[in-house]
Design a protein that fits this description.
about 425 residues; alpha/beta
């Protein structure tokens, strides 16, 4: 499938652990040749002749009782050289190395078995760590429907809200890695929460990244009384009166809050934060004139922009948004390099077989190329985002580092 030039693509160097099995097997064979000795020229032997006669390292053990008179076969690695000699030490070391290489090769067996045994064998479960009806839930149901169609098994959405997404995220980290439990992961759960507190999961160690599929960016909204009609005018106003302007957010340490903190850091201005318990009360406060500004999602901001109750200044995405095609980006409005939003991706528990991860990533890519799916994302105020398991892993690392620096410099503490 050729990538769509209109969909941003996350890229990263390929990770051999996520290569398909046919591609990985030559690497395994190469690894075995590197640690096993070069065999001597073959010689004529009985089909039941022990391997020890070929390489001179394994001892004979009694043959099976079911085959009287048969040549003995080895059942364990054991050097035949006399104990205490250099040959004995060499033989033991070589035997241990060979055994380790064989065990490493056999570790691929569960990966092959996962698909050979008919995965998926039952409906899949997609955990959404937020309540039904919000953006996370709607986007999760959109991708679940497409993956279920491609796999021939339904993907059932399970909402497990609590602790800003930590409850549902932890439940997937502890789930069986059999390819039947997935997580809708976000920047909040994987890059922000771990830098604000110590959640009961590790965003890198406990998960197998599959692929990103959407970003949810923000529109910079001002109350109509604010005398600024562009980002440049807003920055100039904030510089003239540090701390006088205030802004609402859906909560301390939330993604919209950090989007404004990044804006202030790059613009060199100071505004006062007024946190609310959710995006809806924050938006209501903005429309009522209780606060001056807010960074809100496209889908919730759009009707209030059309009604004139809020004034849009710019979008926080890297390029202009289809929802607000006439609005410039913050980056092109005087803050080059600025980009902020929440991304959405699929993860599985760590240890999920590589071929299963690969198949799921292909299904996400297939969904992202469908016009109907892209239209559904745009209807929710989201933008399509393509990527691979490797690029998603790189995204988690880079976003975590970026938010760690921002949280530290802004002195943000959890409530």
């Amino acid at each position: 499938m050729q990538p769509d030039p209109d969909i941003p693509m996350l890229r990263a160097d390929p990770d051999p652990r996520h290569l398909p099995i046919p591609t990985r097997l030559p690497q395994v064979r190469a690894g075995l040749h590197a640690v096993l000795p070069t065999p001597a020229a073959p010689r004529t032997r009985s089909p039941l002749m022990p391997v020890s006669d070929s390489v001179g390292l394994l001892s004979r053990v009694p043959a099976s009782r079911s085959a009287p008179g048969a040549q003995p076969v080895p059942t364990r690695l054991e050097p035949r050289a006399k104990p205490g000699t250099r040959g004995h030490a060499y033989a033991r070391g070589l035997a241990a190395t060979a055994a380790g290489a064989i065990v490493a090769a056999l570790a691929l067996a569960p990966c092959v078995d996962a698909l050979a045994q008919g995965w998926p064998a039952r409906p899949l479960r997609l955990v959404v760590s937020f309540a039904p009806g919000g953006a996370n839930d709607l986007l999760g149901r959109a991708i679940a429907a497409q993956i279920g169609e491609g796999l021939g098994q339904p993907v059932l959405v399970e909402n497990r809200a609590g602790a800003g997404g930590a409850v549902g995220t932890e439940s997937v980290a502890r789930a069986q890695p059999d390819g039947h439990t997935l997580l809708l992961g976000t920047a909040s759960a994987f890059a922000i929460i771990p830098n604000l507190s110590k959640p009961p999961y590790d965003p890198v160690r406990d998960f197998a990244p599959i692929a990103p599929f959407a970003t949810l960016n923000y529109v910079v909204l001002a109350h109509p009384r604010v005398p600024a009609r562009s980002v440049a005018e807003l920055v100039a106003l904030a510089r003239r009166s540090p701390g006088r302007l205030n802004f609402a957010s859906s909560g301390n340490g939330s993604a919209p809050h950090l989007a404004v903190e990044l804006f202030m850091s790059m613009a060199g201005v100071k505004m006062t934060h007024v946190p609310y318990k959710g995006g809806s009360p924050a938006l209501a406060a903005l429309m009522a004139g209780e606060v001056d500004l807010m960074f809100d999602t496209f889908i919730t901001a759009q009707p209030h922009v059309k009604s004139g109750r809020t004034r849009p200044l710019a979008v926080t995405s890297a390029r202009r948004a289809a929802t607000f095609p006439d609005l410039p980006t913050v980056a092109e409005s005087g803050l080059p390099g600025y980009e902020s939003g929440n991304w959405f991706a699929l993860f599985a528990p760590a240890g999920t077989p590589g071929p299963v991860v690969d198949r799921l990533a292909r299904e996400v890519a297939r969904a992202g190329a469908l016009p109907a799916f892209r239209e559904r994302l745009l209807a929710q105020g989201a933008e399509p985002l393509a990527g691979t398991p490797e690029s998603l892993a790189a995204l988690v690392r880079s976003e975590s580092a970026r938010y760690a620096k921002l949280i530290r410099e802004a002195g943000i503490r959890p409530e």
